[in-house]
Amino acid sequence: MGELSNIKFTTPEYDEIIPSTGETVKVKPFKVGDEKTLMIAAESKDQKQIVNALKSVVNKCIVEDVNLAYFDYEYLFLKLRAKSVGEISTILATCDNTECGHKNKVEVDLESVKISEVKKIDPIIKLTDDVAIKMKHMPIDEAGRIDVKDTVEALSKSIEQVINGDEVVNIDKSNEAELRKTIADWPTTITTKIRPWFENIPRAYCHVDFTCSKCGTVNSRKLEGLENFF
Ligand SMILES: [Zn+2]
């Protein structure tokens, strides 16, 4: 065993852009074991498992110490995968023709993955004349722990400050539970004011066109979110 573990491979480092900041970082490709961790997570279709695998693998590949938003991880992972195991990922895509529904094998070029534009959206959302909230991008640690479909939970992790008249309350571990209780009591009309923020969070995406091999329908699809790239 000792002799085998002495075998070392040199791994090349190269530059990649962090979408949220536009900074360049040095990265190195991931390894065989990392690829396996991710595949198992992706096949589980479990959001928390995917996020945690993503975080651990991408962190190992970034040479420098950086602070990343969730969508940075998504983007960097797809770029790293292209460099590490090949640029083509084969996915199963269901034909748009509802009478057909055939699952086609479609090749996706991971080098064509882009990040939707990071819009300069105002993080401060006015809820009433007196009350406003300041939003933040949910840290990946949180994204890995919560059920994103739980609105109260997702919101409470995405609020940095609550502004009530002249009073500014910073949200941290000490008042998070209180915030969750408060949010649960908010009228549902408020969520319509907050929705644009969530809709504007950048995602990694790419377009694929394919002709259904069964019925000939030309399908055009936007792949968005990591789970759709496998
Ligand atoms: Zn078809």
How would you describe this structure to a colleague?
With 230 residues, the protein is an alpha+beta fold. The chain has helices at residues 2-5, 32-44, 47-61, 70-85, 140-143, 151-156, 176-184, 189-199; strands spanning 14-17, 24-27, 88-94, 103-109, 114-115, 124-126, 131-135, 159-164, 167-170, 204-211, 218-224. The strands form 4 sheets. A 4-stranded antiparallel sheet has the order 6-7-8-9, with helices on one face. The longest helix is centred in the middle third of the chain and has 16 residues, at 70-85. It is globular and about 60 Å long. The structure holds zinc ion. Zinc ion (ZN) binds at residues 95, 97, 100, 102, 212, 214-215, 217.
Short description:
With 230 residues, the chain is of the alpha+beta class. It is 34% helix and 25% strand.
What gyration radius follows from the Cα positions, in whole Å?
Answer: 21 Å
The helix-strand sequence is HEEHHHEEEEEHHEEHHEE
Number of domains: 2
Number of strand elements: 11
List low-pLDDT spans.
none
DSSP strand (E) fraction? Answer: 15-25%
Structural class by SSE content: alpha+beta
Shape: globular
Bound small molecules, by name, code or SMILES, are: zinc ion
Strand order of the largest sheet: 6-7-8-9
Instruction: State the share of residues found in helices, binned by percent.
Output: 25-40%
Treating each run of at least 4 consecutive H or I residues as one helix, how many helices?
Answer: 8
How far is it from the N-terminal to the C-terminal residue, by CA? 35 Å
* Largest sheet descriptor: 4 strands, antiparallel
- Mean pLDDT, to the nearest integer, reads 85
